[in-house]
Amino acid sequence: MIRDKAKILLGIKDDLQDDVLDLIISNVTAHLMSLLKKPEVPPALDFVILEVVVRRFHRLGSEGMKTESVEGHSVAFYDLKDEFVPFLDIIAEYRDDEDVNRARRGKVCMI
């Protein structure tokens, strides 16, 4: 299901990249499970897997780079450790640990 949606987003119409997509999906799913501290990813978070899979697929061949510039076109990549940053608030809603019900640490600024 995620592979089919990823192929649509990536414009892939054949099966030549299926093994690569399956491996990326497996790795992203394992990473998300470790963030969630759960043995499986809730279906409601499939969109997170899909978004990160598409990003990782686009990054194939450029894994070690942070930026790439070709003839005036520049691309900046997320560090792998930051791939889930845009989704951390959503992921926190599904985390399975004792810290979920505690107040979050923050900071107060007095002006």
UniProtKB/TrEMBL annotation:
InterPro entries hit by this protein? Phage_gp6-like_head-tail (IPR021146)
Name the chain's protein. Phage gp6-like head-tail connector protein
Q: Which organism is it from?
A: Shouchella lonarensis
